[in-house]
Amino acid sequence: MKKQAIIDLLNQDLTGEIEAILIYMRDSFVTPQCRPSREMEEIAKDEMRHAEKLSELIVDLGGVPSMEHRELNFGKGGPKGYLRRLIELEKGAIAMYKDHIAIIPDDKIKKLLTHILHEEEGHLEEFTEQLREFNQ
Fold this sequence. Notes:
CATH topology: Ferritin
Number of domains: 1
Radius of gyration: 15 Å
Largest sheet: none
Number of helices: 4
Structural class: mainly alpha
């Protein structure tokens, strides 16, 4: 796989992280102070660290980090709707990281992406648990 193809994949990952940061922070601000709002903010900070590591890796490979994001969908209907949307985002990130880990041949990159993948799986568990608590 050519270096530019790897950079392009990493920029896709970065775009997803930026989208998550913006949505999680916004949702944490508009959700009344409670466990989910605090958790949204903390997970947004994790996503910021992911974006930083991905950006450093892109630069190390000779690329330029893309600071783009898709059109933002914050979810609807208050905290429950926001959590449903965050669960969708985490599932999408998990699938993307798994795909990229499978096709990128570089072990150093795979190690970083695997670390991020495990954190995304933890985020999915946390958001799923919070939604379950809201539904009780």
